[in-house]
Structure formats: C-alpha cells, structure tokens
Amino acid sequence: MKPKSRVVRKAKEAGFVIIFLAGIGVALGVLGVLLASLIVTAAPYLTPTLITNYANYQDPTRAGYAAAIAGTLWILSLTLIFSLPLGIGAAIYLEEYSHGGRISRILQAGVSNLAGVPSVVFGLLGLLVFVRGLHLGAVVLAGALTLTILVFPYVVITAREAIRAVPQSIRDAALAMGATKWQAIRRQVLPAAAPGLLTASILAAARTIGETAPLIVIGAVVLQTFLPYGPDSPFVALPVQIYAYIDLPGPEWQGVSAAGMIVLLLILFAFNAVAIVGRNRMQRMRW
Amino acid sequence: MLRSLVKRAAPKAVVPEPEVLQVPPPLTLVDVEDPAIESRNLSVWYARKHAIREVNLKIQRKGITAIIGPSGCGKSTYLRAINRMNDTIRNCRTTGQLLVESEDVYGPNVDPVLLRRKVGLIFQKPNPFPKTVYRNVAFGIQLHYRATKEELDRVVEAALRQANLWDEVKDRLDDSALGLSGGQQQRLCIARALAIHPEMLLMDEPCSALDPVATAKIEDLMFELKKVMTIVIVTHNMQQAARIADHTAFLYLGKLVEYNVTRELFERPTQELTENYITGRFG
Lengths: 287, 283
Ligand SMILES: Nc1ncnc2c1ncn2[C@@H]1O[C@H](COP(=O)(O)OP(=O)(O)O)[C@@H](O)[C@H]1O
Ligand SMILES: [Mg+2]
Description:
The structure holds two protein chains of two kinds.
Chain A: H1 6-42, H2 49-52, H3 66-97, H4 102-116, H5 119-133, H6 140-164, H7 168-175, H8 181-210, H9 213-218, H10 238-246, H11 251-283
Helix pairs in contact in A: 1-11, 3-6, 3-8, 3-10, 4-6, 5-6, 6-8, 7-8, 8-11, 10-11
Chain B: H1 2-9, E1 27-28, E2 37-46, E3 49-59, E4 64-68, H2 75-82, E5 92-100, E6 103-104, H3 112-118, E7 119-122, H4 133-144, H5 149-162, H6 166-169, H7 182-194, E8 200-204, H8 212-225, E9 230-234, H9 238-244, E10 247-252, E11 255-261, H10 262-267, H11 272-278
Helix pairs in contact in B: 4-5, 4-7, 5-7, 7-8
The complex binds adenosine-5'-diphosphate (ADP) and magnesium ion (MG).
C-alpha cells in the first residue's frame, strides 16, 4: 500500500478550515453591514421621543412608536402564554403518550403542514374566526390568538426534539421507583428538556415579534395614539408601524423606520438574553 | 443500539441455532418453600419474538438469586417482567403468571405503580437523574409522600448510609450526581431505590460497567441487604454469581435450563448445556 502524503493531508485540513471560516465570515459580514447601515440610517432618530411619542405622519422628528412598542409587548406576552403550554402539551402527548397510531400520525402531519402555511393565511383565518366569528374585533387578544396558531407548530416541533433528546434511562429510572407516567414527565423529563423548551420559546418569540402580515389583515390601527389598555384594546405592533412609516415618501421616513427596527431588535435581543441565561443556568446539570 | 451491538458481538458460530438446538425440559433441583416471587409458565413476547418461554421459577425470600446465561437469552426480560417494567415497551406481551407475595402481578387489580414501589429495579448502566445527589435520593419519597425537610433529610441520610455511600458524599449532597464515579453512581441508584423501602430489589448486571473495587463494594452491600430483602441479580459474571448467590438459574434461549443451589449448579451441573456454559465453552 502506498502511504498518503502527510503534506497533502495537512493542506486539505487547512483548506477546509479556511472554507468553513469563510462561510461564517460571509454570514457575519452581511449581518454586520446590515446592522451598520441600519444604525447609520436610524441614528438621527434614535431619541427618547422615539419610544414616548405616538404615530405621527407629518413630522418625522416627532414620530414615535409608543403604542406599537406596548402593543408588541402585549401581543408577545399573550402569544407566549397561549402557545407555550399548548405547544409543549401537544409535544408531550405526541412523544410520551401517543402510540404512533393513525390519529397521532394525522396530528403530526397536521402540525408539520401548519408550519408551512404562509403567515398571511393565518391573518385571514384570524380575521374570520377571532375578529368576526367570535366578535372579538381587531383587538390585542385576536392578534395574540392568531399568532398563537402561527407559532404553535414551531413550538411543537422544537419541544418534541427537546423531549425526545431526554434519554430513556431517565424515564425508566423514575418509573421503576413507582412514579406515574405524569410524575416521571413532570419531575424528570421536562426539567431535563427545559433548555430545549426554552429554545422553543425563543423561536416562538422571534416569530411573534416579527410577524406583520397577519396583524395587518386582522386590522392593526396604525394611527393609534393611546397605549393598549388590555387584551380587548385596539392595537398596533412594531413591524406594522414600521411598515406604515416606510410607505411615506422621503429619506427621513426611512430613518424613522430604521429606528423602529432597532427598537424591535433590541426587544428581541433582550428576550433572547433572558432565555439564554436561563438555559445556560439549567444546562449546568445534565447527563 | 447497545443491544444490537451486543448481539452482533456474540460468537454466532459457537452458539447453536435455535431450531437446531433442543433445550431439554427445565430441571429445577432446588425446592424453595414460601417463595417471595414465583413465575408459572411465564412467557414474554416482543412482537413475534418469543423471548421468555414458559419459565417456572421460585425465588427465595431474603436471599440472593442469580440469573445467568449468554447475551440475549432473556435475563433482562425476565427481570423486568417481575416489576412490570416491560409494560413500558411497545409490542411487549406477557402470558402466564408471575406471583409476588402470592399475588399475580399481571392480574386484573394490580397497579404497576404500586408494584414497582415494592419491587425496586437497578439498571445495568447507572442512571442517576441529572440533579443533585440529595434530589436523587429524595425523589422516591417525594413521589409517594408529602415530607418535611427534616423528614427528607433523615431518609436521605439513612438510605445513603445503607448503600455505604454516606461517607463519600456527605459533603457533596448538593453537587450534581453526574460528577460521581461510576461505582458511586450505581450505589446512588441503589440508595435511591432503598429510600422508599422496597421489599425486593431486582438488579440487572449492576456491576458490568464497574471496576473490581466498585464491584466488591456492591457485592458487600448485597450481602447486607439480603438480611432484610429479596434480591434477584442478573449477571454475566459467573464468578460473581458463585460468590454471592444462594440460588442460581441458568437461562438459555428464553428457557430455564437448570436451577439449583449455586454451589451445586457450578460444581455439579446436571445438564450438558449448563456445563458447557459455566466452563466457558460458549456464551
Ligand atoms: N425492546 C425489545 N424489542 C424487541 N426485542 C427485544 C427487546 N428487548 C430485548 N429483545 C430481544 O429479546 C431477547 C432477550 O433480550 P434480553 O432480555 O435483553 O437478553 P439478556 O438480558 O439476557 O441479554 C433478545 O433476543 C433481544 O434481542
Ligand atoms: Mg440484559
């Protein structure tokens, strides 16, 4: 047998590392350029009034996002409160209780297909079912319920992965001590899956914060000049408000929009930071 | 996956194929009076695979009974049938009777949750929960009782002492159980099982992942435990069976081949199969 050349092997190793680094570099580079141009465009408008003022379509220096920020926080909280228990519950059922029969196969297919439906369709569904059907009107609750359906499949899919990753030996250990199935799940499987479940909530939050189309379809109010007062309040959300500003002519409105995007990103980063700190804390004790 | 690896590693050429081999009628040479556990014509299937074939066995109260046999002969399946852990496996079916304290655990009014509380199971691979040492041992109590902190402390210490682990972990009760050595983890699993005062303990190759020193510690522990409880141990290691077991059952291809007082079985096997196995001619 002819030995392989050491030099060639080393060169290949180096070559591939360079390719991988280049990949990361391109991705980060694009992100950096994006963020930089966003910040440059937004810079003149990043003032305190941006978050204290309401919508204003005459004077870009006085345009703000107060109602939109509050609306987004309302929608985000309600959507997470609805979608996480529902989605994690469905994941627990599919992973731990269903026996892979026809019903669970249909459920699984339904969930996967739901994930592929364009978001505007959910807006239409929300409009028909929640706004008109249940007579909720174009309110925070209707928006949150619509987005709940939208993020539900993502929560289910991510939570299932997290639950499936818990070794069977953990369940066996609990059951062998006389735990009921639910006790084993509640006290061992879910805590062990918690980091993955937090990932599910991060994904759900990211989708919720960024969604525009369904909220426009439902009827978010881009002229709102008061903070939403509750689940039954009319609302506007950040991406919708950004979209309204960007439609106006002139570079100054682009600056206002860019500033709104930065607020949006900051909210998302803040949420993710909390979730990631929580996840790392939990991950300290794993198999 | 592990199981398939084990199966593939088995020396196929030497082990006779099932259809060629005639396992003779089971030979039970020891009479156990008032058994704690008894199986009558117990059969277990995985889908169509007949993994345990009509096994009749009486297991002595407050003694150690070893089950030996080559990989894949059904030792784990038999053990898990006793506290109905096979219920958790899809496609697994059990027929015949399995009496624990004279009650058929596959009878209509048996709650496997209560049964498992009474009949603990120690797994081949130590499987502590990814929690602190303390939480591991407290888990069983918290499943079955509402306990105050003091009560929990007391039970946790008693169980760890009983498992000869207290001195090694008393300063690290709040550290992750996963930081313990393999032998300590296995004794922690035993302590965890002991905390709820089971009447019987099933052990599935509890030492196969451990070094000889850790193994000796667990064997010592079993000698102490058998004063108060019934122990059934599956082992791959014939020296271990010879050292610790009062009675030994030899299983082959899901059938009971020979069952006798340990010493007799090893010194005067009456079946050719048994003799071949214990002299290491196959397995
Ligand atoms: N979950 C399972 N599904 C299907 N077959 C299994 C399963 N567990 C064990 N078996 C089969 O049943 C037989 C007995 O297995 P096991 O009781 O684990 O043997 P042992 O513990 O003696 O090595 C083996 O042939 C094995 O392949
Ligand atoms: Mg086994």
